[in-house]
Specification:
The complex is a heterodimer of chains A (323) and B (291). In chain A, helix 11 packs antiparallel against helix 14 (290-317). Helices cover 69% and strands 3% of the residues of chain A. Chain A is mainly α. Chain A has helices spanning 2-15, 28-60, 77-83, 86-117, 124-132, 139-149, 156-163, 177-205, 209-217, 222-233, 235-249, 254-259, 276-286, 290-317, and strands spanning 62-65, 69-73. Chain A starts with a helix and ends in a 6-residue tail after the last helix. Chain A is built from 14 helices and 2 strands; from the N terminus they run H-H-E-E-H-H-H-H-H-H-H-H-H-H-H-H. Chain A has a domain at 86-140 and 173-209 and 217-317: MetI-like (MetI-like fold, Orthogonal Bundle). In chain A, strands 1-2 form a two-stranded antiparallel sheet. Chain B has 291 residues and is an all-alpha fold. Chain B has a single domain (76-290), classed as MetI-like fold (Orthogonal Bundle), CATH 1.10.3720.10. Chain B contains 14 helices and no strands. Classes of the chains: A mainly alpha (323), B mainly alpha (291). Chains A and B meet through helix 1, helix 2, helix 4, helix 5 and helix 6 of A and helix 1, helix 2, helix 5, helix 6 and helix 7 of B.
Chain lengths: 323, 291
Amino acid sequence: MAVHTAGAQRTLESEAPPGRRARRRPTRQSRVTPYTFIAPFFVVFGLFGLYPLLYTLWVSLHRWDRLTGDGGFTGLANFRDLFADPDFYNATYNTFSIYLLSTVPQLLLALAVAWLLDRRLRARTTWRALVLVPQYVSVVAVALVFSQLFGRDFGVVNWVLEQLGLISAPVDWTADTWSSHLAISFMVMWRWTGYNALIYLAAMQAVPRDLYESAMVDGAGRLLTFRRITLPAIRPTLLFTVVISTIGGLQLFAEPLLFDSQANAEGGTEHQFQTLTLMLYKYGFINNDAGYASAVSWVLFLVIAAVAALNFYLTRRLGGSDR
Amino acid sequence: MATLPAAERPRARAAGPRRHDSAGPLAYALLAAVVLASVFPLYWTFVVASHSDNSVLGGSTPSLVPGGHLLENIGRVFDTVDFWKALGNSFTVAGTTAVSNVLLSSLAGYAFAKLRFPGRNALLVVVITTVMVPTQLGIIPLYLLVTDLGLYGKLSALIVPSLVSAIGVFWMRQAMEENVPDELIEAARMDGAGQLRTFWYVAWPGVRSVAAVLGMFTFMFAWNDYFWPLIALPPENGTVQIALNQLAAGYYTDYTLMLAGVVVSVVPVLVLFAVLARRIVSGVMAGAVKG
């Protein structure tokens, strides 16, 4: 952000007398003020973020109808039912399948795009902006557009595949597990690849250029330089994106909901693309079984925490020893 | 490139004309393919939305040329659902949360960057950690809470929980640290200015442009949000995303209608994006380096 305000900063600095760093003794007012300035965030987060999350655990231990309220403490009954529910395992499988199909190619592709952008380009900002555009198209719009693109009868994807002779009859993308997962993953990839590419690009530009210079002098090619210098240097950023896309990717909701034109949270006729968040929505807000839905919530929370931690660990090991 | 970001200028110059750095034809070709992939779905949306009915899609070759029925289809969108109300609701919610996020995040960011108080670093760590918390999973109690507060169905159900965000606080702290010299704050305090006056007259002018980007991000995020509005508002008083969703409902999908709705919903955000593209790009990239 220093970019835009660098000018302002220069003016401010030239006005300020250098070296004056006298500390004033804090007054009563200045002791309280900092806390009132930061209080809004903590109040809002505590009330509307943390409290609901913790309260979910409490609700999950009850029979709880969304409309009529608490129906009595049932202990772990909701969790027992959940672990005996085939839908739960199916949704877990779908969640992981779509998460992997969308995240792994997405981050690799983003790396490649960043690598392409990390060189002297004409109209540099335009390229960056065009790559970033999909990030600002709403998930709902993306889902509707892609449900057309992947439509059975009028879809562009089927048309292209037919022209290429890859399929003989139109594919009903919503009908099968693999095809629906693929289509949903494309939505996620389309929306997020450019964003991640710019994040990587920013990290790549912070790599000292003389490192590349000396590698070039030593006769290293582009790919080798990328592997030996760029990748290790941007590891903290890789870590960040992997964790963030894990947290987001395991909570996919709108894409699978709207891929089904009935938007009924079943995730297709055979639940073939029902994710855990869809299941949470279905039980919480369609079946009104808030207790059961809260159990789904908490299991998903633990899954996300575990996978994020695992990915953190794996990515940290990437590219050799810690520096 | 007349307005190259200042921070990048020296590096670019120092790099000089070097073989390693410059993009060849292949790099341009690959980038063009990437851009095509990122823009085509939007163009296609426009094409479908400007044709008269699904039949244009059913021919042996889909047309890549826009038709002449865009306005007519948009008219049908407004006849099918109350899109005016949805647009109004979305503007209200997104505008309010953008303004409040900017103000509250700036105040908190100022405190974290420029004021000394016990627990500052620990509290800052708490703020940063909360970015990672999947609060979406608390959606059921959030619904119960909002209902108990009597906010269900009201726009304030969307606004109040989003008044200020961790990312905003973190971002504005960074901006204060980089763009507002301590000396200036101290000078103002020496002259007897109170904290609020110091914030407003000394710190705020230095971070205004960062605040603008934050406001815009918040606006777009609120505009595009779907899960919570779906739950907190009844369909007849929804946001643009909810209205869009209603266009898609049903057994027979009218793609021209549905995608005309997408055009209406996407245009405000894309206009904002086009106008501020340069700032958005450097905003995303700056957030990345520091985040």
